[in-house]
């Protein structure tokens, strides 16, 4: 009588083990999207893995050797910071001119995003783009000199008059050409993104500029001149009305993500412990067949547990 008892118990345990294993592995899924790149936290709406984050930010961030890179149509930028409270990213372009150096050899990236991404990313209104060495024919100076309404101005106290004081001008000298000498268009023109870039972005080729700088103001207090300005591009991210999906998902302990591709279409997804939902982890809108079978496995293993327990009771 002992032999069959042992084998049935063993058999029941075996079933339980094999059925429970995939389920317990599945639990690691929760929050598998949150990660780090160097010391920068990657969290919703961003992601560095396929399926993680909001689809508006897909194929945007790449972590290369602990350096977080931001990739858009105008090029690649290094991400210095992601400010989740103020919903802003700080970017650095190696071709960006600073107070110490005007980078002429390559035009620099400027800032141009893919049309579909425009609602999700835009430089902040207090970020000043300093466009340098733009030609007389630049769209910036359309109608110059008769047109006095140049877009150039000070943005949040950041402007070209101050920038001309930078040592970077030492070798080139803003007085050689341009408005400073009263002859032609200004050698530096500071603009806010919205005024020039909202349609086509800050495209240095299109604007016929040789170089650019970008400065932003974080604190309301004024800093003491262009040496102390923050050089980089401050970009606001905004998911607008789409946030409701993620809030509902996270409220049920899900992780927000997406599925699909540009060809098949992209849908937001709520990743729950063992399944994916198109709503949240308490809804019944099961996402996929694998999810269905996971639930099926769940009920079988409960049955097996009860059965195993039952065997013990009998013997
Ligand atoms: C990350 O580390 C760098 C130096 O390694 C530091 O300058 C920077 O402030 C850090 N960023 C954050 C968000 O902690
Ligand atoms: C849930 O979706 C993510 C992202 O698309 C995918 O990697 C994962 O395999 C899916 N899980 C299930 C159980 O379908
Ligand atoms: C910038 O403008 C040029 C000239 O119009 C165009 O060929 C190029 O594709 C634009 N760059 C981007 C990143 O849109
Ligand atoms: C911009 O600010 C500087 C001082 O920082 C001032 O001298 C200049 O007149 C201002 N320019 C414009 C166009 O307001």
From TrEMBL:
<dbReference type="Pfam" id="PF13947">
    <property type="entry name" value="GUB_WAK_bind"/>
</dbReference>
<feature type="signal peptide">
    <location>
        <begin position="1"/>
        <end position="26"/>
    </location>
</feature>
<feature type="domain" description="Wall-associated receptor kinase galacturonan-binding">
    <location>
        <begin position="33"/>
        <end position="93"/>
    </location>
</feature>
<dbReference type="GO" id="GO:0016020">
    <property type="term" value="C:membrane"/>
</dbReference>
<protein>
    <recommendedName>
        <fullName>Wall-associated receptor kinase galacturonan-binding domain-containing protein</fullName>
    </recommendedName>
</protein>
<dbReference type="GO" id="GO:0030247">
    <property type="term" value="F:polysaccharide binding"/>
</dbReference>
<keyword id="KW-0732">Signal</keyword>
<dbReference type="InterPro" id="IPR025287">
    <property type="entry name" value="WAK_GUB"/>
</dbReference>
């Amino acid at each position: 009588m002992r032999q069959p008892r042992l084998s049935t118990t063993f058999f029941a345990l075996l079933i339980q083990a094999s059925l429970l294993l995939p389920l317990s592995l599945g639990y690691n899924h929760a929050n598998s999207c949150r990660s780090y790149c160097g010391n920068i936290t990657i969290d919703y709406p961003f992601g560095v893995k396929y399926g993680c984050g909001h689809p508006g930010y897909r194929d945007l961030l790449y972590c290369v050797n602990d350096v977080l890179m931001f990739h858009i149509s105008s090029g690649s930028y290094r991400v210095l910071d992601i400010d989740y409270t103020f919903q802003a990213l700080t970017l650095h372009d190696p071709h960006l001119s600073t107070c110490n150096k005007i980078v002429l050899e390559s035009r620099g990236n400027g800032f141009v995003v893919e049309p579909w991404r425009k609602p999700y990313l835009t430089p902040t209104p207090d970020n000043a783009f300093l466009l340098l060495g733009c030609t007389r024919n630049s769209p910036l100076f359309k109608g110059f000199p008769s047109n006095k309404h140049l877009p150039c101005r000070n943005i949040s106290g950041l402007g070209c008059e101050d920038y001309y004081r930078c040592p970077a001008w030492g070798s080139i000298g803003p007085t050689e050409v341009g408005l400073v000498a009263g002859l032609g268009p200004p050698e530096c023109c500071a603009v806010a993104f919205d005024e020039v870039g909202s349609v086509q972005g800050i495209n240095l080729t299109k604007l016929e500029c040789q170089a650019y700088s970008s400065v932003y103001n974080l604190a309301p207090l004024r800093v003491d001149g262009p040496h102390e300005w923050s050089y980089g591009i401050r970009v606001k991210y905004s998911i607008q009305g789409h946030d409701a999906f993620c809030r509902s998902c996270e409220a049920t302990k899900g992780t927000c993500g997406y599925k699909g591709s540009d060809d098949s279409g992209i849908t937001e997804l709520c990743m729950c412990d063992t399944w994916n939902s198109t709503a949240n982890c308490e809804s019944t809108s099961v996402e996929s067949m694998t999810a269905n079978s996971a639930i099926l496995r769940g009920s079988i293993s409960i049955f097996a547990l009860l059965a195993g327990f039952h065997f013990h009771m009998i013997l």
